[in-house]
Write a structure and sequence with these properties.
heterotrimer; A mainly alpha (about 170); B mainly alpha (about 700); C mainly alpha (about 100); A: about 170 residues; mainly alpha; Four Helix Bundle (Hemerythrin (Met), subunit A); about 0% strand; extended; B: about 700 residues; two-stranded antiparallel ribbon; 2 strands; elongated
């Protein structure tokens, strides 16, 4: 466990918590961006350079911004209630999440992951990635292209202002 | 031997009044003329037929009978039958003649009553049953008619049933005679058991014939008493009840609650005579000496004579102190019936029956006369309220006087003298004891005394009734006068009186010792005119003695009551002034009724209460307990059903619904909730998987 | 603690936080945010396993995550478009109110 890793992990987690805890929506969106960035950095730390940058590009650059846009567009809606209200529902959610985390942690600590020795950093050049995409994963590539197109069209259609019908 | 048509059709005589009764029962109250016509017509026809039968019996003085099988018991046949012999013939004529006269009298007497039709229906029913009783050749048939006669007596005593006194008297009559009838029934059963037949005469097989009688005489039962004596005494019980002998006489005075024609017909002339007739019918059984001592007289007849004697004196004593005109006559009837029993006991059938026939006529006359007096006094029956009526009701007075003299036994010209003398003569000659004779003599004195008292109270002296205006000119004819003054009764009432008075005189002559025609006829032997018979056998002394007794009684009565009659109704009786305690005891009938109330009615009441208690709690208790148990079980079942089964089911359904309601809260539409659940499920599942792996 | 375990733990924590937020927050956008966080945690898992597991040369983990990012983007776009559309109709993004209105 190297120090950079720890710092990056901490940043990410703090960002994530902030995103979930802040009252103002814009603050949440910005904290989310920080969390995304932290994850991107973690990818870089783990040696997946393209992935890290792709994460930054897509998540921070597009998705976080998109979220900010939507938050701004839906201003005037009710402001959120205090996040951690004493309502039992809220508490149940946290409890469930806590339970899941506990189980995962327990699984992790009892699994082989504890004993895996460190490995050398793998080679993951752009060239290798491109070749893999074109050769092994050509089909998923096309499919995802199709899916993105459909999602794009769908999102536009859904979010489009309805034209008033002939009256 | 061919049977004459009258004997073959003898059964028509009782059937005609029965038919009249049946048709009258269907008539409405308004059809009174038709009912009266039916009754009188049927009775007249029966009288005509009875005369024909009498003529036949005169020509052929023998016993003829017709038997027929009636009912089958297994292998045995019960037979019934009718017979015609001199006794039956004489009785038939008497009953139909007196009955006819009383029916005619009733038309006038009951004219104002609204239940006229019902009255004649019952009268006809009575007449039919009585006539049936007379011609019965079977003890069973006789008993059946006996019971119907008792029933009609009940119906007629309680004719005015709205009056509680009348209803009670009817009940009393029925119950008391029932006690006697029980004895009669037991005797009948015993007789049938011993002899196998209830027919009186059946060509040698009847129970009054020699074979049966000798069988009964030889059998001895308790205390060495022969079966014949036992059966005879039991049958006599029935006679004691029906004829009002001591101790079952208590119903006769109360029976005067019925209308006067009823008292005349039933309780003077005919029904009470049925007991005497019964004894006469079963006389062969009564008189058979016990086989053990053939010379001795029959014990049964001894009992009959003594009971008759005691009754005669007892009733005569009580009659002295009575105030109701009809009650005096009722006690007089009891007394005279006692005389008849003496006659039967000491002298035989003829002696008793002679007095029966004579008594029927003059007692009916007296009762009808009393009815005329009551009618004329607007319903007043207390003799202390009457007085001096001979001016207002002369015909009634004359006929009543004739009847009274006949009853007293005024010598020579009145039937009572000859019949009573026959009895006294036979009692004098009875070789067992002179007791009945002396008692009879005392009774004769008392009879004359109380009749004179009654006649003086009613017809002599001054008029005592208060609400009487100045006397209007008395008239003999009938009844278009205002209802305030005492008046003579209409002709429908006075004509029968006159006719009966005639017979009260003339009948005596058929039985005098000079020409004992009736006795001869009844005993089926020839009787001849013979004045010498008057002189023999101590008869003249006896006739003289009895005449003296009668004169003594008449004189005593006149001296006490005729010379100084009481002025006001409230004045005490002369005898009452002398001996108030004895007078009061006699007035109350020597407290016999009270004695019975204490000794019989009270225990019977207790027994009935006990039986009622048993019925309610013990016999009823078992079904009640069972039903309570079943009800309890049912209640348990119901409760179980309601509280356990139903409630359980309801609770189950409610809990299912509740849990459903609870579970439905999961489906609240909130995605976050669903997600929470999914997350929780995921955690649990993961846990299981991991743990499973471990294990 | 090996690096792999550390990574996995971190991603688990991230996942838990995202889940808690998705289950708890009332605003629809924030639920989406939570979902995005969960997705990212899973992606991190993949990358960690690619880095520290055998057969790193096959690049399987990386490619998967690449596609996952693409799919996440598409999904975020559509989801946000939906939120906008709903907002236009009901003038609110509050989940509780939306549920109530729907019955």
């Amino acid at each position: 466990m190297s120090a950079p890793f720890l710092i990056l992990a901490a940043v990410t987690l703090i960002g994530a918590c902030a995103a979930m805890l802040f009252r103002g929506l814009v603050h949440c969106a910005l904290a989310l961006a920080v969390a995304f960035a932290g994850i991107g950095a973690l990818y870089l730390n783990l040696g997946a350079q393209f992935l890290g940058l792709a994460q930054l590009l897509v998540y921070v650059g597009a998705i976080a911004v998109l979220i900010v846009f939507v938050v701004l567009l839906t201003r005037g809606g009710d402001s959120d209630s205090p996040p951690l209200s004493p309502a039992p529902r809220q508490f149940t959610g946290i409890l469930v999440a806590g339970a899941i985390f506990a189980i995962l942690a327990w699984a992790i600590f009892h699994s082989f992951a504890i004993h895996t020795p460190g490995m050398p950093v793998p080679q993951a050049t752009i060239r290798q990635l491109g070749v893999a995409l074109m050769e092994s994963y050509a089909l998923p590539l096309e499919v995802i292209g199709l899916m993105l197109t459909a999602a794009l069209i769908g999102a536009v259609l859904v979010a489009m202002k309805e034209k008033p019908g002939p009256q | 031997m061919a049977i004459a048509w009258i004997v073959r059709y003898l059964w028509v005589i009782p059937t005609l009044p029965l038919l009249a009764a049946g048709i009258s029962a269907l008539l409405k109250q308004g059809q009174r003329r038709f009912a009266a016509v039916l009754a009188i017509a049927s009775m007249s026809l029966s009288f005509v037929l009875a005369m024909v039968a009498f003529g036949h019996a005169l020509l052929h003085p023998e016993r003829v009978f017709v038997n027929f099988p009636w009912m089958q018991f297994g292998s045995e046949w019960v037979k019934l039958g009718w017979m015609l012999d001199p006794l039956a013939a004489v009785m038939l004529v008497m009953v139909t003649f007196v009955g006819l006269l009383i029916f005619i009298y009733s038309v006038g007497y009951m004219h104002h009553d609204e239940n006229f039709t019902r009255f004649f229906c019952f009268l006809s029913l009575f007449a039919g049953a009585m006539l049936g009783l007379l011609i019965a050749n079977s003890l069973l048939l006789l008993f059946m008619c006996w019971e119907v006669v008792g029933l009609t007596s009940y119906l007629l005593i309680g004719f005015w049933y709205e009056r509680p006194a009348a209803a009670a008297a009817a009940k009393k009559a029925f119950i008391v005679t029932r006690i006697g009838d029980l004895g009669l029934l037991l005797g009948m059963v015993w007789l049938y058991g011993q002899t196998g037949t209830l027919l009186f005469y059946d060509h040698g097989a009847g129970c009054m014939e020699h074979a049966a009688l000798s069988l009964l005489a030889t059998q001895t039962v308790y205390f060495g008493m022969a079966a014949s004596t036992g059966i005879a005494l039991l049958i006599f019980c029935g006679a004691v009840g029906k004829s009002g002998q001591l101790p079952l006489h208590v119903w006769l005075p109360d029976a005067m609650e019925g209308p006067t024609p009823v008292s005349a017909l039933i309780h003077a002339a005919t029904m009470v005579a049925a007991g005497v007739y019964l004894v006469a019918r079963v006389y062969p059984l009564m008189s058979v000496p016990p086989a053990a001592s053939p010379g001795a007289p029959s014990a049964a007849l001894e009992v009959v004579a003594w009971i008759g004697a005691l009754t005669a004196v007892f009733a005569a004593l009580v009659a002295v102190a009575q105030d109701d005109i009809k009650r005096i006559l009722a006690y007089s009837t009891v007394s005279q019936l006692g005389y008849m029993m003496i006659g039967l006991g000491v002298g035989g059938v003829a002696v008793g029956i002679f007095h029966l026939i004579a008594h029927a006529f003059f007692k009916a006359l007296l009762f009808l006369g009393a009815g005329s007096v009551i009618h004329g006094c607007m319903g007043e029956q207390d003799i202390r309220e009457m007085g001096g009526l001979r001016k207002w009701m002369p015909v009634t007075f004359v006929t009543y006087a004739v009847g009274a003299l006949a009853l007293c036994g005024f010598p020579l010209f009145f039937s009572g003298f000859w019949s009573k003398d026959a009895i006294l003569h036979a009692a004098y000659g009875w070789n067992i004891s002179r007791g009945p004779f002396y008692l009879g003599a005392i009774g004769a004195l008392l009879t004359a005394f109380y009749m004179t008292r009654q006649v003086c109270y009613v017809f002599f002296g001054t008029r005592r009734k208060d609400a009487v205006p100045d006397p209007i000119a008395p008239s003999e004819a009938a009844a278009s006068d205002p209802l305030e003054a005492a008046h003579e009764s209409p002709t429908t009432m006075t004509a029968p009186l006159a006719l009966l008075a005639l017979f009260a005189v003339l009948l005596g002559f058929i039985g005098t010792p000079a020409w004992p025609w009736l006795q001869g006829f009844l005993e089926m032997r020839h009787a001849s005119w013979d004045f010498r018979q008057l002189a023999e056998d101590g008869l003249p002394q006896l006739m003289l003695a009895s005449s003296l007794l009668v004169f003594a009684g008449l004189g005593l009565g006149w001296w006490i009551y005729g010379r100084r009659p009481i002025k006001h109704a409230a004045d005490p009786d002369a005898l009452e002034r002398l001996q108030p305690a004895i007078f009061h005891a006699l007035h109350q009938g020597l407290y016999v009724d009270q004695l019975y109330a204490l000794t019989i009615q009270r225990p019977a009441w207790w027994a009935a209460c006990f039986a009622n208690w048993l019925e309610q709690w013990v016999w009823n208790g078992i079904p009640l307990a069972l039903s309570a148990m079943v009800k309890g079980l049912g209640w348990i079942d119901f409760s179980l059903d309601r509280w356990v089964v139903n409630k359980g089911f309801d609770e189950g359904c409610d809990s299912v619904a509740g849990s459903g309601r609870l579970l439905s809260r999961l489906q609240d539409g909130s995605i976050q909730n669903y997600l929470r659940l999914v997350g929780a499920a995921l955690a649990v599942l993961a846990l299981f998987l991991l743990l499973g792996r471990r294990g | 603690m090996t690096p792999l375990a550390g990574c996995l733990l971190a991603s688990s924590m991230l996942f838990a936080v995202g889940l808690a937020g998705a289950l708890t927050r009332r605003n629809a956008i924030l639920v989406l945010v939570g979902i995005e966080l969960m997705l990212n945690a899973a992606n991190l898992n993949f990358v960690a396993f690619w880095r520290f597991g055998p057969h790193s040369g096959a690049l399987t983990g990386m490619v998967f995550v690449l596609f996952s990012i693409g799919v996440a983007a598409a999904e975020a776009a559509v989801g946000l478009a939906l939120i906008l559309a709903v907002y236009r109709h009901t003038k609110t993004t509050d989940l509780r109110q939306l549920i109530r209105r729907r019955g």
